[in-house]
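Supplementary notes for students who missed Thursday's class. We covered one full example, reproduced here. Read the sequence, then the structure, then the short commentary at the end.
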Amino acid sequence: MSDDLRPGECRVYWARPSDERPWHQRLLSAGERERRESLRRDEDKARQTVAAALLRTVAGRHLGEKPAAVRIDRSCTTCAVPHGRPTLPAGLEVSVSHSADRIAVAVGLAGPLGVDVEHCQDQRDILGVARLALCEAEIAASAPLDQHGFYTYWTRKESVLKSTGDGLRTAMTKIEVSLPAEPPRLHRYDGRPEVVASARMFTLAPGDGYQGALTVLGPALEVTEHDAAALLADDTHAA
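Structure (token representation):
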């Protein structure tokens, strides 16, 4: 049965590696299973499996298809490795992110979107790391830059790059976003004024110790967040 999204609606589903169930592997494509087996650590395998299973389960609900039958294209625009932004049929837009104990799958009908979540790890040299991602105006306006500010900037910027499909091939310093204490907004994207004009940004709530952001390139009217634990425990999706 389909779970209809309304035009302009986006949903973000949150999960954890501990939500993994043995039958989740049956939902994976051959490529996803190969990727799983290439990982050495059990926690990395669980994180990758839950992310892929959740994406297929959520997409299946909105497309009215069985999760294992959902066709996901991960073609890269610059190489033959299938690691590009996931795309689905019927105009359904999706994005996936995971860090440590958090996994996010965003789905919507408001335009291309990008979600990012980051575990806020202690940085001994915040400013040194920030100079790789922040423009001079952002560093100056945020001095002294703390951990919360750095990860707010980072997640906002990476969500923009994921929404465009540019990824980290584009330097984060080419993007300027609002100050961490201000509502999220894209101020500048060098050479891409159309992105600035269409971008709608949202702060997410992944829990203590994490920062999250969502960017939608379109008229996003409603963004909601959902706990996916029960969805991932429902083994009727394995059929």
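Commentary. The first strand starts at residue 9 and ends at 15. Residues 42-63 form the longest helix (22 residues). If anything here is unclear, bring it to office hours.
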